[in-house]
Amino acid sequence: MAQVMRLDKFLKVSRLIKRRTVAKEVAEKGRIMINGTVAKPGTNVKPGDELVIRFGPKTVTAVVERLEENARKEAATEMYKIVSEVRNDQENGESGR
Fold it and tell me: Across residues 37-41, what is the average pLDDT?
């Protein structure tokens, strides 16, 4: 088991983001933070790190549980724990009128 892993690879292997190229683009746009710091695609993640990912209409906060070079679909969800999922329109104080 790896001790550290590139952010873009972790997102792909864990299936938080299905494709590494998409993970790389999201990170390059500054939409991913690790422990409160904006992360680049090559930033290393390790168990215990908190990831905040802004996907279009929602923001997902997850904690890295473990790292694996390759994970089957069933094992991928064990690589992280979702802490929260927030719809961004609720964050901005807008109500659904």
Answer: 97
pTM recorded for the entire structure: 0.85
Phi/psi of residue 75, each to 5°? -80, -20
C-alpha dihedral over 51, 29, 39, 86, to 10 degrees? Answer: -20
Give the whole-angstrom CA distance, residue 13 versus residue 75.
Answer: 10
Q: Residue 73 carries which side chain, given as an amino acid letter?
A: K
Show the tokens assigned to 57: 């209409």
3-state secondary structure of 6: strand
Domains and CATH numbers, the chain: 5-91 (3.10.290.10)
Local confidence band at 73 (pLDDT 50, 70, 90 cut-offs): confident
